Amino acid sequence: MIVEDWGLVNYADGFERQKKCVQSVIDGAEDHLVLCEHPPVLTLGRQTHPESLLYQRKEIQERGVAVEHVDRGGDVTLHAPGQLVVYPVFDLNKYGKDLKVYMETLEEVAVDLLKNFGILAISISGQRGVFVEDPAKGGVGPDKIISIGVGVRKWVTYHGLGINVNTDLSLFNLIKPCGLDVRMTSMQKLKGHSVPMGDVKAKVIERFQEHFS
Amino acid sequence: MTKIILPELGEGITKATIACWHTKVGEDVIAGQEICEAVTDKASFVIEAPAAGRLRSISVDEGKEGLVGGVLGIIE
């Protein structure tokens, strides 16, 4: 598995790089695990409902948040600095060609990752992504901490996970994340302090290598 | 005449929603061309033309569900 850290990259540029990566894996290159962050952007997946955007597009853009249509499954989501975006570009021909198993494995990776930071997370049947109970809410919840949405071309995956590490959560007020009436949270919010991005990246790589080897 | 079939996507997955068609009825396609996208369980799967020819018909319109193993359209 080749690991690439693209740092902070504009969404559209990152997507072009991702497409090249996908083509290289289709052509026989090793699987790639891409880590990056994006400037504020709302991405509208293939299952986006218009009502998931809570403001007019012009107002959203005036707040410095770009809007992009993308070819992944799922509804709208937000990327912003402080959120670690992970693009696994994996050849599922090696892992059984099963979308359900792949999605479930991504959730297991995410749950294990959060466990490394002392955060107990869960996946919920019928709702892709990873959630946590916020004790401060007195059992009301759960809040979503990691979003998942993927694309698959010739059984090679792209798009992936948005892990809210130190994300500015107020930006999620622009949308119904993933089309759900759910509150978003972050590792920073749950821990009560900023979490070093480098530590999260290191654990993400470890967990992926563990689950996809 | 070649059928465009919704392929097996995984155990227990019996259907998927056609998110979009990249080709209109009457347009020519080449074998392997990306022709439509099926979405299931927050995963979007690109379906390719199984043969060269003209897209004669679409059986499952955008936003509608197709069955795994079922016909999505016809190329002739």
Task: Please give a structural write-up.
The complex is a heterodimer of chains A (213) and B (76). Chain A has 213 residues and is α+β, with helices and mostly antiparallel strands. Helices cover 28% and strands 29% of the residues of chain A. Chain A is built from 5 helices and 10 strands; from the N terminus they run βαββαβββαββββαα. Chain A has helices at residues 11-26, 57-62, 99-116, 187-191, 197-211; strands at residues 2-8, 32-37, 41-44, 66-69, 76-79, 83-89, 121-124, 127-132, 143-153, 156-164. In chain A, the strands form 2 sheets. A 7-stranded mixed β-sheet of chain A has the order 1-2-6-10-9-8-7, with helices on both faces. In chain A, strands 4-3-5 form a 3-stranded mixed β-sheet. In chain A, helix 3 (99-116) crosses helix 5 (197-211). By secondary structure, chain B is mostly beta strands. Helices cover 0% and strands 53% of the residues of chain B. Chain B has strands spanning 2-5, 15-21, 28-29, 34-40, 43-48, 53-58, 65-67, 71-75. In chain B, the strands form 2 sheets. Chain B has a 4-stranded antiparallel β-sheet with strand order 1-8-6-3, with no helix packed on it. Chain B has a 4-stranded antiparallel β-sheet with strand order 5-4-2-7, with no helix packed on it. In chain B, strand 4 (34-40) and strand 5 form a beta hairpin. Chain B starts with a strand and ends with a strand. The mean pLDDT of chain B is 95. At the A-B interface, helix 3 and strand 9 of A face strand 2, strand 4 and strand 5 of B. Strand 9 (143-153) of chain A pairs parallel with strand 5 (43-48) of chain B.
